[in-house]
# Entry
Amino acid sequence: DVKVTQSSRYLVKRTGEKVFLECVQDMDHENMFWYRQDPGLGLRLIYFSYDVKMKEKGDIPEGYSVSREKKERFSLILESASTNQTSMYLCASTPAGTGYEQYFGPGTRLTVT
Amino acid sequence: QKEVEQDPGPLSVPEGAIVSLNCTYSNSAFQYFMWYRQYSRKGPELLMYTYSSGNKEDGRFTAQVDKSSKYISLFIRDSQPSDSATYLCAMASSGNTGKLIFGQGTTLQVKP
# Structure
């Protein structure tokens, strides 16, 4: 079974803090993704990566950055957290060539106060 | 206008009912059409996918794609309380199958 794990289920941070969200997958997948999920807006792609050290912006990259130093790990960084970044953050992975079948982690509920 | 539109519901049906979930889209380049299911406090999981037009059946679930109308559907027969979840449609074009565009999700409750 593919497993995608995220470092925290719930996180509370203060405005202006630097926040790291970690995602690890154990199936040697090439592609990894970060989404945020908000009521009424569905899932929106923040960043994705097709290979180690490679990254591409998704639809809403502003205020975020990412790091992929190892194939199994994809980190999302909020450089200076703001209240409008309060959301559910979901990480996903997929093998090369089968991008439609994404395997998701359980999500991190981030609250910025 | 969003690329993918989905009625968020909530939708409440009695056990055993036939459920119809739908999405419309505007981008004619979409070729991959997916349905993901998301239980409360869990990440989404792929339920079904269809390439291009047509129908696909898997047990109690049937996915339909009508590209001429830019309309996709998921039917659930003999619905069960365990089907209670949020259902998300997602789409991708052939050249970029990794970048999915999701609908807002429809919350379904099946009452015993």
Remarks:
- Chain B touches chain A at residues 4, 6, 8, 32, 34, 41-46, 49, 88, 90, 92, 96-100, 102-105 (CB under 8 Å).
- The longest strand of chain B covers residues 30-38.
- The CA atoms of residues 2 and 26 of chain B lie 8 Å apart.
- The radius of gyration of chain B is 13 Å.
